[in-house]
Amino acid sequence: MKNLIDTLESRLAPLPVAMAVELPSGKRVGKPQAEVTLRFRSLAPLTALAAGHIGTLGAAVVEGQVELEGRVRDIMRAASALLQSDPVRGTSGWWSQIMARTRSMALHTLARDAEQIEFHYDLSDDFYALWLDPRRVYSCAYFREPGMGLAQAQEAKLDHICRKLQLRAGESFLDIGAGWGGLLLWAAEHYGVQARGITLSRNQHAYVQQLIAARGLQERVRIELRDYRQLPPDTAFDKIASVGMFEHVGHAQMPAYAQTVHRLLRPGGLALLHGITAGGVDNAQVGAGMGEFIGRYIFPGGELLHVSRVLHAFAQGGLEMCDTENLRPHYARTLWAWSDALEARLPEAQRILAEQTDSERGARALRAYRLYLAGCAMGFERGWIALHQMLVARPDGQVDGGALPGARSEYPFNREYMYRKGIACPTSSSPVPPPI
């Protein structure tokens, strides 16, 4: 025990925040005036703390073996300093890659994907509404102006996507993984497209159906409960968006997903892929147990690929990359906004989850989400994970003639159309979905 206490004291002393550990016996180790305190109800998780395996330590918190006291921002500062190695520098050999691909294939059947989406997105709409913006946009915001709040930045993101896709009135638009309908409704109401969304979440499907009816958009907007692999083979769209979705596709299915997008996109059309990407080229997931934590408690079946691997799959699928933008710092700011909003309403969150699940599951979920939101904010800040928007085109085969000879798609010769002034980005004064 003395050796363990000596190890703990040496690990806690240089941390950037004052931290203390309370052992099951009641003995305290660390700073007397602590900003963060870990109360251990068993000795087993102490090994993870000493080794800097913060994902395993987080699992012990969720399971009630360790109690946290302190601000989550301070907890994350301490957690990052406890790491003993770079969590994205691990490499995997050919055998590990084969095994990961085999596991990925088993994880992403139609039935497993539906179950995994239900586990996360159907937890509780009321819980998510506590800390998301009024449109419930559950993906990285775009802080186009430094002073934007979260709601404005989410609207700016929706418009940024629509601009990149050059949406026009009357075009057919598909949103793969439509969430609570933010992009689907924005595209229909602000750009006049014929919008169709698909989702595997029953809660989101029901919510968006009510929004469509409440806003009188039945003739222009549809939401369907189906997998992208179940879309009819003869279906084609002018423009496609996939926001916060390809993280659920998996390594093994990514080539087939790219081929599906190619098939669904008419020649000359554009698709916008917006998703979380791995910070390292070769690591299968974030190290120090953080990847396992997210897979167990938050996103079962979720898999991250480096942006180069995503682009490789889509290039193999016959789609040309036109533009790629890294919004990593925007997601760090988004996640901190979500984390701060949840921290400000913890009693209400606890009540909602206890009523809509059960008290034990609700308590575990709340502990998991507190660590997940703040931990991911930390991960994006430090570059362990990233967020990319990739605009791809399906070439139309036309080289000569037309307004843009040689373009082979609707993508113009420069990016000015995405950013030029004179096209006002709507603000939070824009209509928001009515409460359901």
TrEMBL record:
It comes from the Bacteria. CDD domains: AdoMet_MTases. InterPro entries: CFA/CMAS, CMAS, SAM-dependent_MTases_sf. SUPFAM superfamilies: S-adenosyl-L-methionine-dependent methyltransferases. GO terms for biological process: methylation. Pfam families: CMAS (PF02353). GO terms for molecular function: methyltransferase activity. The keyword Lipid metabolism applies. Keywords: Lipid metabolism, Methyltransferase, S-adenosyl-L-methionine, Transferase. Belongs to the CFA/CMAS family. PANTHER family: CYCLOPROPANE-FATTY-ACYL-PHOSPHOLIPID SYNTHASE. This is Class I SAM-dependent methyltransferase. It comes from Comamonas endophytica.
